[in-house]
Design goal:
The chain is an alpha+beta fold. The protein has 10 helices and 6 strands; from the N terminus they run H-H-E-E-E-E-E-E-H-H-H-H-H-H-H-H. The relative contact order is 0.10.
């Protein structure tokens, strides 16, 4: 006899169909459902199930299996460009006849200052060499963050910066270059292809827990004292009674 009414693998899906989760914005719920696997970083996908052996001429099956990577918590406070820790084994003294030893390959990290043109601020971010190459290929930090999907960015800091950029673009914030309106307009026109409504930009990059807390605060209402309601009802009742009573007009002699 099963211990649960529903198997544990569907608990998360069932949770989204009840309570405050059903009142989350539709565009945010769609973003959760449209998630896709991240781009290959530590392996090269072959894209085929078999290939011809050049020596024998026979067709052989190939395994197109991604290498699992572990993303430590500190990767969320930086921008690692999709890189993570790879856990594997190596031979002692490079001798295949010796015992295998567990090994963890970690990316090399650098602390670099990156400038955001939209936010007009320099950020000191922990990055990898791949991140710097991607930023250069995108012609700037702003283009890299705005064009990279959340799955490939894989950074809480990166998504927070994306949300701040989208909000500034949506609201056309005048705090950007306040002494140079021409430059401000140039920046807004440069990134106009990424503009989305401010109501959607506020939810970009939020985790499910953060989105639920945001929705709870939006629905929160301060308690109203009872006497205020009684006073308003009394005033309305007196006004109605005054209108219903006939008005007595005295005749002047």
């Amino acid at each position: 006899m099963p211990l649960h009414k529903f198997p544990p693998r569907v608990w998360e899906a069932l949770k989204m169909k009840q309570g405050i989760y059903t009142r989350l914005p539709g565009h945010y719920l769609r973003s959760l459902q449209e998630s896709r696997p991240p781009a290959a970083v530590h392996w090269k996908p072959l894209g085929v199930n078999s290939h011809v052996n050049p020596k024998t001429g026979h067709r052989e099956r190939v395994q197109d299996v991604p290498i699992p990577a572990y993303y430590p918590p500190e990767s969320q406070s930086g921008m690692w460009g999709g890189e993570g820790w790879i856990v594997g084994y190596r031979y002692a003294n490079n001798d295949k006849l010796s015992n295998r030893l567990k090994k963890v390959w970690k990316p090399q990290l650098f602390n670099r200052e990156l400038y955001s043109e939209i936010l007009d601020h320099k950020f000191k971010i922990t990055v990898t060499a791949r991140t710097l190459d991607l930023v250069d290929a995108a012609y700037g930090l702003d283009f890299y963050i705005l064009r990279t999907p959340q799955e490939d960015l894989n950074s809480k800091l990166g998504m927070d910066l994306k949300r701040a950029m989208l909000l500034r673009l949506a609201r056309k914030d005048t705090e950007l270059y306040p002494e140079n309106p021409a430059k401000r307009e140039t920046v807004f026109n440069k990134y106009k292809e990424f503009v989305i409504p401010a109501e959607e930009a506020e939810w970009v990059g939020l985790s499910l827990e953060e989105a639920v807390e945001k929705q709870r605060l939006l629905e929160k209402k301060d308690p109203e004292p009872l006497f205020k309601g009684f006073v308003e009802d009394l005033v309305q009742e007196l006004a109605t009674r005054k209108l219903s009573e006939p008005e007595i007009v005295e005749k002047k002699s």
